[in-house]
Design goal:
The structure holds 2 protein chains of 2 kinds. Chain A is α/β, with parallel strands linked by helices. Chain A is built from 5 helices and 6 strands; from the N terminus they run αββαβααβαββ. A 6-stranded mixed sheet of chain A has the order 2-6-1-5-3-4, with helices on both faces. Chain A is globular, with a radius of gyration of 17 Å. Chain B has a single domain, classed as Porin. The chains are: A alpha/beta, B mainly beta. Chains A and B meet through α2, α4, β4 and α5 of A and β4 of B.
């Protein structure tokens, strides 16, 4: 029988282990299995999430399934990948529409599995999730896109 | 076919009917909760928590036109906005912006600005149709727009149209002041615009070719000598590069030509070349633009030249704060025939600094201090406070 303090230590250790694992594996871009795209360049991915590119090569409309503010995936997207504050991001997206460009379609999901479910239901959707979630039941059916030809976990993979 | 009445059906028949009715209600109800198609999803550019487990979603193509309406407005308090002007509150402008995908590839765009900041009484609030466009987008290489639009003269005018909420600062660079506010550049026209990408690999080149009507230049709407619209002779060609390898960088040049009549009976050639180098990424907003504009009147061999630039630097601190600073200069060289053009653009330098605080996704508060030096007049300081919001 574990004492409360032992339990807390174990829980903390587990939390930090999971955090290390997630940080080590980085983030994955998942798309519907029917999506013909299997590889994206970093610049193409940045253009998609910046709202400047709104269609897949097959001309279907890109639907961005984003994680809610404060989630690790959203923080990575804003702070490290796009390096933009949430307010500026929203202003930028609205500014593109104001300039006459087609608006980006965004749905914000409250968990990685919810994002996966969404992508599974919307073939033209794409989501950025933690790589540690890619093996979850709801995400397993999706295609994990390569970034610059590299899969999550490979050396030189950029989304980590 | 006669279905009959309940009396002929008996209890079993009635149950069967009830089941059918229940089934029909369920189908209708399920239909009412059908997942949104892509055009419905586009309504949600403002992120909100969402649980796909409770809200089914499905793919779909934008099938029906949906009018998307945005509104932008600002409230201001100004100190010494122009030399000697009393302190005052004002409602800046209300900008109503709407788009609708009317058919595959076609989009209708409407922007109406209700401009109140120069209006002494509410009985004469000007309503400007800022943009009214039918856009056709064939692909990323060809987009055609017809109607009233913003000319692609320079960067600021295309990136920050109306709507104070969009721009970081309270004030626009004077070089890109609107025509009705005495701006020296033709920022609006009615005509046709063709734009798109140029396959150019790492350069990321884009082009814009526009033709339309001449618009007033440097003449406020209440001027005693209003400028004429001389015809559909305005041509603007613009090209800019957005290298994919340097996100946020844009380098561009535009060349505008037309004929216009600053006073009745005088038709002059005018042209304007702009160049810009802009970097908006990684929390920086670094805008740099230069303008050289000429006006030439052949019969008198007279020439006037405006040459100016502005440079604006802003940086986002944390998620809310954005200090910024801007410097602007303008020089005018004119033959005696055009000696009056210095009245069109009386300023020669502007130094502006301020801070923007984004209260939330929709409301920004800005505080700005400025120093303006005009031709033949004492320089002065100004200050302004603005609440800009989008809804």
């Amino acid at each position: 029988m574990q004492t409360p303090s032992q339990f807390r230590k174990l829980a903390l250790a587990g939390f930090f282990a999971a955090a290390r694992l997630a940080a080590g594996q980085g983030f994955s871009v998942v798309a519907h299995p029917s999506n013909p795209v299997s590889n994206l360049s970093v610049s193409a991915l940045r253009a998609m999430f910046s709202g400047t590119v709104t269609h897949w090569p097959n001309h279907s409309k890109i639907v961005l399934a984003q994680r809610s503010a404060g989630s690790p995936a959203n923080r990575f997207l804003m702070d490290r990948f796009l390096n933009i504050s949430w307010q500026d991001y929203k202003r930028s997206l609205e500014g593109l529409e104001f300039m006459g460009q087609e608006p980006a379609i965004i749905r914000v999901l409250n968990s990685d599995t919810a994002a996966c479910k969404f992508v599974f239901n919307v073939p033209s959707a794409v989501a950025l999730i933690e790589s540690s979630s890619a093996g979850a039941a709801d995400c397993r059916e999706l295609r994990v896109l390569k970034i610059d030809g590299l899969s999550p976990g490979q050396g030189g993979y950029r989304l980590r | 076919m006669v279905i009959g009445t309940f009396g002929h059906l008996g209890i079993k028949g009635l149950r069967g009917r009830l089941r059918l009715a229940l089934l029909a209600i369920l189908v209708v109800s399920a239909r009412a909760q059908d997942p949104p198609d892509a055009s419905q999803l586009a309504q949600n550019t403002a992120p909100a928590d969402y649980d796909s487990a409770s809200t089914p979603t499905a793919p779909g193509q934008p099938a029906d036109p949906r009018f998307r309406l945005h509104a932008y407005a600002d409230l201001d308090f100004s100190h010494n906005q122009a030399a000697g002007e009393p302190n005052h509150f004002s409602v800046g402008e209300i900008d109503l912006f709407g788009t609708a995908a009317v058919a595959p590839g076609f989009t209708a765009l409407t922007e109406v600005a209700i401009d109140t900041d120069t209006t002494p009484t509410l009985t004469s609030v000007p309503v400007n149709v800022e943009r009214l466009l039918l856009q056709y987008s064939l692909n990323e290489y060809l987009k055609i727009e017809a109607g009233q639009f913003r000319t692609a003269v320079g960067y600021y005018s295309t990136a920050y149209l109306r709507g104070a909420w969009f721009q970081t600062a309270i004030s626009r660079p004077r070089l890109f002041a609107f025509e009705e506010d005495g701006g020296i550049l033709p920022l609006h026209t009615v005509g046709v615009s063709v734009s798109g990408e140029i396959p150019s690999g790492f350069l990321g080149l884009h082009y814009v070719v526009e033709t339309g009507n001449t618009r007033t230049w440097g003449t406020p709407v209440d001027s005693p000598t209003p400028a004429n619209i001389t015809g559909h002779d305005a041509v603007n060609v613009s090209t800019f590069a957005r290298p994919p390898s340097v996100p946020g960088l844009e380098l561009g040049v535009s060349d505008y030509h037309d004929l216009f009549s600053p006073i009745v009976g005088l038709t002059a050639n005018r042209s304007g070349v702009t160049m810009h180098a802009v970097y908006v990424a990684n929390r920086f907003e670094f805008l740099n633009e230069g303008v050289v504009a000429h006006i030439h009147y052949g019969p008198a061999s007279a020439t006037g030249t405006f040459a100016g630039f502005y440079s604006q630097l802003a940086y986002r601190i944390g998620s809310n704060w954005g200090p910024y600073a801007r410097v602007e200069r303008l020089t005018i060289h004119a033959d005696p025939f055009f000696s009056g053009i210095s009245y069109i653009a009386p300023w020669r330098s502007m130094y502006t600094a301020g801070v923007r605080y984004d209260w939330n996704d929709h409301v920004a508060v800005k505080l700005e201090l400025g120093h303006e030096a005009d031709w033949g007049a004492p320089h002065y300081y100004q200050a302004a406070l603005q609440v800009a919001f989008a809804y």
